[in-house]
Structures are given as structure tokens and as C-alpha cells.
Amino acid sequence: MWGGLALTVGATVYPFVDDATTRILAGHIQASYPSYGADEIDTAVSLYLMILSVVGGVGVVTWLGTIWATRTGKRWTPWAATLVFMTAVCIALAGLTVRDTSGDVGLAPLLGWLQILPCVLGLAAVVLLWRRRR
Questions:
Q1: 42 neighbors 19 (Cβ within 8 angstroms)
Q2: Three-class SS string for 36-99?
Q3: Among 20, 22, 29, 21, which residue's Cα sits nearest to residue 48?
Q4: Which residues pair with residue 105 across a beta bridge?
Q5: Across residues 60-64, what is the average pLDDT?
């Protein structure tokens, strides 16, 4: 679970690193909307950064809550972890597949795949929680 938390923090922080360095997200938006000027691209990037920050923040809190529930032996932990996992997968898949008005996926694919990484460890956590319960 600590690994999932670390991946969630990384997936939340990386878009800000990208914005300050390689600007993959900005390039993706520019390619999708060639008529956008610099201000419009910056606005779109800022909106995505806000959305990804909120999703990442909720993910961090959820990992911490699941770690706490597991350590304290709460009986409902496997059920809650399963629900959270399914929700996280839906959100991550939406980031990978939802197309915007340009016809392209809205989120740059690299950033979309980064959202999937914590879900992989989430699946492992859910499986281990159910096995532990037996």
C-alpha cells in the first residue's frame, strides 16, 4: 500500500514537473487545437493540473485511510478498498479514453498512463486484503 501511495504522489506531482520542463501536456493540447494561442493553452494546462491535483489528493487520502484501516484491523477494509479500486480504475480509464471536442483524447497519453500505475498496486492490495481476510 505504501508503494501505491508513492505512485499516487508521483502521478500527482509529475504533471507539474512536466509543465515546468518538457510541457508534454501543453504540446498535446497544441496538437489537438492548433488554433489555440499561448494563453488558451496555458488555461487548459492549468485546468488539467487542477483536476489531476484534486484526483491525486483524493487518492493520497484514500491510500492513507486504507493503510490506517488495514493496520487497525477494520473488517470493512476489503470492501472499501474494492470500491475505491473500482472507482480509481474508472477515473484512470476516463483519463486515457475520453475524447474532447477535437476528437483526440483530452489528457496526454503519458499522463493518462501515469494515472493507471497506482491502480496496478491497488489491485494487488485488494487481492491481498481479501486473501488476508480468509
A1: no
A2: CCHHHHHHHHHHHHHHHHHHHHHHHHHHHHHHHHHHCCCCCHHHHHHHHHHHHHHHHHHHHHCE
A3: 29
A4: 99
A5: 98
Distance CA 129, CA 131 (A): 5
Q: Write out pLDDT tens, residues 75-122.
A: 999 999 999 999 999 999 999 999 999 999 999 999 999 999 999 999
**CA-CA distance, 76 to 115, in Å (whole number)?**
26
Task: Supply angle C-alpha 90, 109, 47, rounded to 5.
Answer: 75
Contact 112, 105 (CB under 8 A): yes
Q: What angle do CA 27, 96, 7 make, to 5 degrees?
A: 90
pLDDT value for 105: 93
pLDDT at 133 exceeding the cut of 90: no
